[in-house]
Records
---
Amino acid sequence: MNREDLYRQIQAKRSMLCVGLDVDYAKMPECIRNLAESGELMFQGQEFRGTARSIVEFNKAIVDATAPHCIAYKPNLAFYECYGIDGMRALDATVDYIRSRYPEIFLIADAKRGDIGNTAKMYARAFFETMDFDAVTVAPYMGADSVTPFLAYKDRWTIVLALTSNASAAQFQMAEKDGRPLYRAVMEEMMGISNPDNMMFVVGATKADKLAEIRSFCPDNFLLVPGVGAQGGSAEEVMQYGANDKGGLLINSSRGILYADNTRDFASVAAEKAAATASF
Amino acid sequence: MNREDLYRQIQAKRSMLCVGLDVDYAKMPECIRNLAESGELMFQGQEFRGTARSIVEFNKAIVDATAPHCIAYKPNLAFYECYGIDGMRALDATVDYIRSRYPEIFLIADAKRGDIGNTAKMYARAFFETMDFDAVTVAPYMGADSVTPFLAYKDRWTIVLALTSNASAAQFQMAEKDGRPLYRAVMEEMMGISNPDNMMFVVGATKADKLAEIRSFCPDNFLLVPGVGAQGGSAEEVMQYGANDKGGLLINSSRGILYADNTRDFASVAAEKAAATASF
């Protein structure tokens, strides 16, 4: 998906919301957890049972309810890998389902991979060929050659961690390189090997005061902004300081939408929360 | 596995070698690639066919040949994820095989994960509970709270990236924090939240001149040293400058052992290479 397609979707839905599909069996509503005991489900041409069945039924319900109100989904790989092969099958089926039903949606693998060149090439193949994601998040610690293999794919996106939303983000991201904080050096040097049509950056919403400064040296790239909702950031502030003339923002909320309600109404409550988050 | 067990194995085998199981179908000997066309294989109680069959047969042959000459195996997740579910099933079966046949071996998931606390907890579960690895490699960019969830597991290890072996390693790892290069700040601050019984560091062998300096402030922790062999580092130099009184080193070679030969003799050539690498 290219930048124009993404911008058109933002305008059509009047939303910058990305829903983080961080599935956690323990937090799912009872009616979904119970499905793990209900035999098998055929979904996207495959059989699912046990926890895997709960995951695909939960994702299907959340996606069907929230797709009109968001422009992107972002499964975090950790929440599937922890269920082993079953979890990865559930992720594949979820991706296939979104692709077939909601082809306009931008799909992000929140994987935070980062490795030497020949290995990064295999990760790029995993997320852009074996799986069909539009984008993958990448950690910059190993430098440019751990990022370039992802950039070889046309109309696919590399989303590099810059300034994250967690409590210890500043510990190393505020180290100094050539008179700049490290996160800025990461952004400027990554901008030097890419363009706003194939690279985005992760900038935590809990640092909304930093967004205006970031836009001063990075006006064009999309920013993926986590930390809204459960982590305490304000989507309104993010849009005020972070938006640009192509939208420029994917504002992520995960737990605040997925687990807003734990009754049989969980999907409609998720839809309400989604409609009220990062819309304009 | 604890530090004493690891040291005993180093003494018994007189080796500090870790073999990187970076499976790449395109580089495998023809006799192994052909197995993809040879119907199904039962392995560790599961059926494998196609590329997955080649992967498990290759790993089994390499492990059986090299286990007497190494103390650890380190599958890099990228090389399994790129084959999708089949690749992950092959990884699981490989881990089960090593666990059942060679229980003395230290098993490292080279995954380079790194995410916020609640997500890191899921990755720790994935590698230490769902899969049965002794250790996982972790990227430090997001700071201490992305590492601590891994430390909650007794006799499991977190291996934090410090100074890597790739060409662009210095780009961000030599940024400055409080008068120190970033990689040193990472090591010293991670040492502050852990101990030498649950944390190791990745230090690239292509920086062997740095090893003596690293031992001046980090005398006790095991170092996982990639970059020997295909990447150009010298195992002898690494042992000269990096060993300590508990061994202190896991010296990794991947391509230099796995793909040393592409005939039917590949496994015995791999064994010879393994016996000649990082032994003493």
Note: The mean pLDDT of chain B is 96.
---
Amino acid sequence: MVSIIVGTNRADSKSSALAKIYRDGLLSRNVESQILELKDLPSDFIFSECFGNRTSEYQELLDQYIVSAEKFVFILPEYHGGFPGIAKSFLDSFSGELIKGKYAALVGLSAGRAGNLRGLDAYAGVLGYLQVEVLANRPKLSQIEDLLNGSDLKDEEYIARLNRQMDQLVSI
Amino acid sequence: MVSIIVGTNRADSKSSALAKIYRDGLLSRNVESQILELKDLPSDFIFSECFGNRTSEYQELLDQYIVSAEKFVFILPEYHGGFPGIAKSFLDSFSGELIKGKYAALVGLSAGRAGNLRGLDAYAGVLGYLQVEVLANRPKLSQIEDLLNGSDLKDEEYIARLNRQMDQLVSI
Amino acid sequence: MVSIIVGTNRADSKSSALAKIYRDGLLSRNVESQILELKDLPSDFIFSECFGNRTSEYQELLDQYIVSAEKFVFILPEYHGGFPGIAKSFLDSFSGELIKGKYAALVGLSAGRAGNLRGLDAYAGVLGYLQVEVLANRPKLSQIEDLLNGSDLKDEEYIARLNRQMDQLVSI
Amino acid sequence: MVSIIVGTNRADSKSSALAKIYRDGLLSRNVESQILELKDLPSDFIFSECFGNRTSEYQELLDQYIVSAEKFVFILPEYHGGFPGIAKSFLDSFSGELIKGKYAALVGLSAGRAGNLRGLDAYAGVLGYLQVEVLANRPKLSQIEDLLNGSDLKDEEYIARLNRQMDQLVSI
């Protein structure tokens, strides 16, 4: 199972739209996936689900989206020149043992030019620390406001990059 | 005014103990400072204080600790090989205009060897994006469990590094 | 004295053209500067000037461009997604004591979109290790082939960013 | 074929000693490897083998160590808080097409505590840009002077980490 993590809690985000495009792309490759929107986490999870605290509901969520998955896609918009804090807080909320040795694909989005390059590098560093293998191919979608309109991703180069990443993710 | 930000919401943290040492060190240099513990933020601030939402209580907190301060100390423990997500979520919760052009000193803490080097680099990248000048001198306190016992920091080399950083922070 | 370091040994580089623009900009602020082109280093300096080897000519070069300068501008083009190796080898060729406590401004150039963001971050990390204060404002000039034609930098936004950086560099 | 790259041109380096340990470890897994010492590159290769220049001898070296290899081990000592410039210059000296899609394992060495963590992160970023898959497991050998005496690596934990990395490298 592939879990696609929308790395922001913003409502109606471009990242969310991209996650659906990604899910469709995987489905066209006969691979099922499930989307976890961080906006659906308990609003106080940083406090209620850390440092040894654990509700059964949150454990079920982790079981479904982390423990049961072998591969992950993290969609990470750029906030203040890096990944959203909540995307790291989500990783902080569980033991690295749950994700160790698994695979991840990263996609960056930004309003500006760099496509969240710095955020992807830093997030990959953390995932690497957790012994997650992160694909080298990391599409960085810049100027996303022009690029992504509803479910329509316009740029052919970006579409090709995402397709190559999907091909690789399903083949490992 | 200097704001010392404890970059975790863990209770009774080593970072909190270090913040108090830092405050005392600044006081001995005749500089007043105030400590903000991220554990004292509203437990749902990632949801309630982002994307245009703002309570008056939170605005007052930002006025006190960000707007009124010219210099910042961020105490950042290492979580999963990087900074705590909450420390970035705190930055995400306000406009970069509030902190632009100000100064920051970073201190890293870790149970392991690297003293949160990767977390400090990534956090400095974000602060730099926000046009905050980050001091080059960034003490990285490794094996903190042995090092910091209550309010007693044992290692002479670390104490000297912190003192140099404090000297520099007060002089700019 | 300000030393402007052209961080590549490519002949007739865009970085070299930008260094001259930078020198003119400093001069218009009544600040003199000197340009060091890494292409003018001895072609075997990585071998002949490292690990305790030192010719008197190279020592004179270091005296002029590093020891005598208080501020530095590093112009760093993007090679393979990072800074040119030679730009780090140059730092490797002398003791950190020679540059400790001084100031640096970084400018990135790239053919692609990111303006050498990753290279600037990594280089700033190294300079920070050497206790060099690196300005937060780091212009990243992307798609430089379109941007810089001879001595003519076209983009108003980039010109404004460089001007802000120059203002800051001369004022510290 | 696995190429083990000693990422420094220092003579009799600890990195060189570790490369031999690595080669023996691979051999005990029935995998042959070849060691490339960057100290054996032409002393002026940054000038003579870049920007379109290419001697037949250097092309043969690239054919042997890069083109003919599918997997790479980069042994990277820490110089001034990052990787040696020469290790990046070596990558700069050839087209990314020669190494694209291949695999790399990184090992860091340092006199200090961090085991070249920052250098490994930055080098992994560059390799990722070149579409090289870099193993998440990156042993960081700190305080190497105490650790590595001749061909004898003392620390059991480090030996175990290197063994896990070797196991993974041969299995992909």
Note: Chain A touches chain D at residues 121, 124-125, 127-128, 130-138 (CB under 8 Å).
---
Amino acid sequence: MKKKIRFALLLLLTGFSAMSQQALWGGAEITSPEIRDDHSVVFRLMAPNAKEVKLTGDWMPSQGWVPGTENMTKDEKGMWSFTTAPLSSDLHSYSFQVDGLRCTDPNNVYLIRDVATVFNVFIVGGGNADLYLINKVPHGTVARRWYDSPTLGLTRRITVYTPPGYESSKEKYPVLYLLHGMGGDEEAWIALGRTSQILDNLIAKGKAQPMIVVMSNGNAAQEAAPGESSLGFLKPTMQLPKTMDGSFEKSFPDIIRFVEGNYRVKAEKSGRAIAGLSMGGFHSLHISRIYPNTFDYVGLFSAAILPNEKDTARIYKNIDQTLAAQVKNGVKLYWIGIGKTDFLYKYNQEYRDRLDKLGMKYIYRESEGGHIWSNWRTYLSEFAPLLFK
Amino acid sequence: MKKKIRFALLLLLTGFSAMSQQALWGGAEITSPEIRDDHSVVFRLMAPNAKEVKLTGDWMPSQGWVPGTENMTKDEKGMWSFTTAPLSSDLHSYSFQVDGLRCTDPNNVYLIRDVATVFNVFIVGGGNADLYLINKVPHGTVARRWYDSPTLGLTRRITVYTPPGYESSKEKYPVLYLLHGMGGDEEAWIALGRTSQILDNLIAKGKAQPMIVVMSNGNAAQEAAPGESSLGFLKPTMQLPKTMDGSFEKSFPDIIRFVEGNYRVKAEKSGRAIAGLSMGGFHSLHISRIYPNTFDYVGLFSAAILPNEKDTARIYKNIDQTLAAQVKNGVKLYWIGIGKTDFLYKYNQEYRDRLDKLGMKYIYRESEGGHIWSNWRTYLSEFAPLLFK
């Protein structure tokens, strides 16, 4: 009787809003993606009226600008499906093309925006990606805060990870400043980069020191990520003003001042690391050399190293001079990671030659693959354990 | 020359990853939705091969379980479009149906999950929804944290809004505990409810006291929202165990203990408010009466009031007795909001009779519409200014 009444109420509640009704109406019984024990993955889409359904995923080889696709096959009920070969342990992204129209998977609510496109995502564990899972370990706090940047004349949004135990401790913590690439923002590392999961897991295993991770927004014209600023729900674009013209580097002390004024941190060179991917690697390279004796740890992940500084903003000149000073002042770790097929591979090798000539010691990590998040998550997983030891 | 090199580099960077390539390839020139000055909205979808495209939106009348739709029309290039009448100022949600397949809008990256379905969203300002926009006002901090619930034997995730100035002040702040409905979680109020925007804007206008808002997870079997727990990217469901069986209410002191142990708060009855929508209204009703003298402010938003407590869990019995004690102890504000067409309307009127008999004074707010987020955002916008005065 008790159960009966509760069940009737649940039915009532289930029927609540128009939105909830739609939620139920969307074909709740289909599982897609289904990750099998052997790490092959089955995708399913009920589309009886479609003539052609293709799957595109980040594990498929792409040709230049054209992403790879696989044709899905239709059964007698109108269900399209495709089963992959076993996939690597990673966070993977995909979407469907239904008669030429790009569609997300209506049976997978997990989506991540990359620049102006939204992808469905899933995680294949059992390898690298075990670090990307939310495991039963102590979890840090992730906060979205706003700081004043007098240099840019803006109040700006920032994402801050504080490690487990931060709030209840009296200790001072070291800080990793972690910078995104072009088209990214203060959401990139936390969403696509799985930063909080990687740090939680590394710290729980005793493989990384508890540290604060500060994920700033490197587009100096922006207050915040698309949809999170006073510009409203604008359409994101890849090409933004004030990204690689020196503005962000000039304003970086505003961020350090905010962090060191608002968190219990080791406000000294040995307690500061800076790393970034692509444009964020470029920013990290320059910020670490133009503010002397500020960072003891530098990480360049597939860094967008400019082929030629001759015609660039003044802040990007005198590189050798400032790098030589950086060598002289000393750096505990200078870390360079690049994929073999990255189109920036050549520029990174030229940069290594330059460092060699200046006598800068560094760790060099060459990985498979190109300019992809899979590498950047891996680099973070390898770089973080080397910090603050 | 300087510009030329930078542009060449930008092109290179733009072509970076397979994902970025896909981002560009998705038809960047289409604007959808386009919100016009008169608040009519144009939706567009390029689907030359589709035979029929429908639009469904939360502003359309739905019939029982079937959401309303509008037929879109196709031009010679294969672009489907539809223009609405002027819409109300609100956060609106919508999706497309392409030859029967539910699709999100590939030109709108703004998506919110409601239970197991993902909708595109947009905001029409110029009215109520001006409170839902990110305006140029001081912004509070939104943190996702984890707390221990010894009662439930779980470490659980919680969303906490701290008002602008909290970090730099020494003051103690009052706390609003804000609870979600069935199928929701600790993300519901912050995403669909626009809580941080509403509070930022009300506080900036001097209409609400600066307060902390704690958004807990009322599904007592869950560690966290779908995708945010150790269960991984599981498919969300509406019907969860331990939602209305007394477990959450029993564990609520764990949340209060965490908040009062971790934030600078007014840890007294006059500094505590509790409010919730639907199931969260049900939780608020019961939590406020079973912990005597704990809350001075109670808000029931479209509360899922049980028609009959006879056969329910023990925690839901002796309602009159505990309510009478609540009346005797005194409450500064008891607030009830319900929509005229809400299917819970009748039960809320019965509950009002009950309160009248017990001599409990309350503010009663009857709105248009039913059991919808539009009402819950409005209720929060009206309720918050009444607190802690």
Note: The longest strand of chain A covers residues 141-149.
---
Amino acid sequence: MEVALLSFTPEPELIVAAAARLSFSSIGAIERRQRLRSEQVNSLLGRLLSSGHLSPFEHASFTFALDGISRVTSHQLVRHRLASYTQQSQRFVSFKELNFVTPATIAAKGNLKAKYRELVRASHELYRQMLDDGVPAEDARYVLPNAVETKLVMTMNARELMHACSLRLCQKAQWEIVELFERIKAEVAKVAPRIGAELKPKCYHLGHCDERDGCGLFAPRESPVN
Amino acid sequence: MEVALLSFTPEPELIVAAAARLSFSSIGAIERRQRLRSEQVNSLLGRLLSSGHLSPFEHASFTFALDGISRVTSHQLVRHRLASYTQQSQRFVSFKELNFVTPATIAAKGNLKAKYRELVRASHELYRQMLDDGVPAEDARYVLPNAVETKLVMTMNARELMHACSLRLCQKAQWEIVELFERIKAEVAKVAPRIGAELKPKCYHLGHCDERDGCGLFAPRESPVN
Amino acid sequence: MEVALLSFTPEPELIVAAAARLSFSSIGAIERRQRLRSEQVNSLLGRLLSSGHLSPFEHASFTFALDGISRVTSHQLVRHRLASYTQQSQRFVSFKELNFVTPATIAAKGNLKAKYRELVRASHELYRQMLDDGVPAEDARYVLPNAVETKLVMTMNARELMHACSLRLCQKAQWEIVELFERIKAEVAKVAPRIGAELKPKCYHLGHCDERDGCGLFAPRESPVN
Amino acid sequence: MEVALLSFTPEPELIVAAAARLSFSSIGAIERRQRLRSEQVNSLLGRLLSSGHLSPFEHASFTFALDGISRVTSHQLVRHRLASYTQQSQRFVSFKELNFVTPATIAAKGNLKAKYRELVRASHELYRQMLDDGVPAEDARYVLPNAVETKLVMTMNARELMHACSLRLCQKAQWEIVELFERIKAEVAKVAPRIGAELKPKCYHLGHCDERDGCGLFAPRESPVN
């Protein structure tokens, strides 16, 4: 798996802070932006976060190139609807080589791992044979397993990144998408440390765990209101 | 493939018309709704459509149970972001039997069809063996092919149905998702004939074909503006 | 202010439950729906809510006619982007009579109330004079105050209703939009009591108050994580 | 009215092109991006546009500070739901001075212009008097006219900018929002000329006019399909 930050709103935290201050002030947002110091930005972002005023975080966007994730994970990923995706097509691209993901639970058992690898290989062989026999790539791919790697370009704003991470950094999410968002978090943290620090599982926001059989990081809620 | 209309906004076309008239009138929408005759509704919907005022069509929603589509098609489907999906999980469900889709281009060649069936069978066998060996279902499924059937509940409003059909009823879309939306269109047409009639490929709306190597239904645009 | 439930997904809670069960089962959603008893529906909805699995609630939509709210409130309302709105136009409708909203804080002071009423009257008089002098309604309306009443048709699904209510039923929201959502809640509760019961301010979900100078219903969070 | 481009995805057209090529290729998007020359970018963007493959344009976002627009226009603007807004609050800000917009149709008539100005002045006077008498700003503002200026920070991606401009650059849109999007277009054109050139009224995309009593730029459709 490879995660590269292709592009992002320059000075993302400053933009969030400038937008947030606009709402309560009377002079130009542009001027104000230059007057904000990094301590002020940090402090303002902290207040927005602790009071749940998250909409200014939408003004900062991040664009990632995601490579080497399975179709299992890309299918989960694109369920986040408040984001933009461009995915490598299996309709128009013929795969001469086939990269695939092997879950650790399978790799750990030599016996299964060999059979798994063999089955993926056999799928690819049949796929190529079908292409040779005139089956279109878009149909031949029906034989390819979920394990096959895909790549995407994804753009998500900071508010939606917080939301997606609240779900996908939870230990009950599947390992591959957890790893994906851990890497995304690491990339964001390099260029926007305050936002990066906020990319964490939902229990940190809730103050309790709402999963059955949680990981133990937070206790379940004592007196459920719902 | 099975498509059932599970539920929908009652009197969907009347609701669209009542909403559209609100914008230009001065008495209660509720009263007005009762005064609208079906000819008036039809005529009003026609005017909205020909002038591109599509937002009132968002007030009518349709909920479908979709069964027996491949993971190829469910992955394409959920890319439509202005809709709601609940999909059968491959994480928590273990599949004792495995239904799968066979593209006609493969089924047409006896030789390939047998190999295809055999490979799907072998995938399922390994899948079950991995489950027996303690691999979680969410990991064992990496070996399952795209062909495996899935099911979803999907809710989409009439405006987005028009948009999705404009793309997915085009003959350049893949056959399985074309069939899916043809069935969706047929279900909608039973309860909302005017809306159903509007579910058609984009060329009908554009008045020309914007695909390379189109199907010939409409000619390409003569003098491209772009 | 008048709030009427114009239409809604029939059997809304049953549809949510049927969709939620699909994800973990292997037979048709339609059949299953008929087998669900109301206790089961209630219990299933409770589990979805307490575990934060809210997406199945998107399958139930509610369409309201909202009348007699000020432009202050309609401007706040349409900021909720996951909903559909058709609003009475001030561009194409000329208002012979002008209904308007008077905040209680103004109505309480006889002196101000009279001046307020007089100013709205004067605005309307100038508005009509401008129309008579050939100014288009869309321009004449610039003189109309925020207090002027408007009407909308709004469609929102149950998940977004929960979210909007979490913000707008908070006592820190403005009184008019609080009242609007209280009436919306009352309408939903009549036809979907379990969903209606879930329409409540964010503090109930959080278990604490995240506003400065809260109303006291819930205490602030003791040890802020953010 | 003042429109400033606060921030944007660096090299916006290159990002769109890099994303679009990913879908059909097999090496890293990052490398590829460096290999793209500006002629290639232009040509690729042209192909995406003429074939209606607009989703890659979502990867480029633009953040604007908009100042000095009336509440009429901000209410219209925020109806575009696929964008992010932070608006100056009339709830928490007390306006000592009141800037307002005067439509040209009113300014052109000396008689009306004076009355208009006087009425806005009287509104502001009553507003301030109410504040002095202890009415909260959020209620006192009910007396303020639509003409009052507001400011926003808005982030919109290039695809939605094209859509919004297709509606708001049409001569049937109201003059103030037409002017707003003309300025937005001008700002975009400075940093992304190919995208800027694509910000134009819907008739250019349709090849005909779908408004009643159009401006004459394009003729109505000859044989309506709808």
Note: Strands of chain B lie at 2-8, 61-70, 84-87, 149-157.
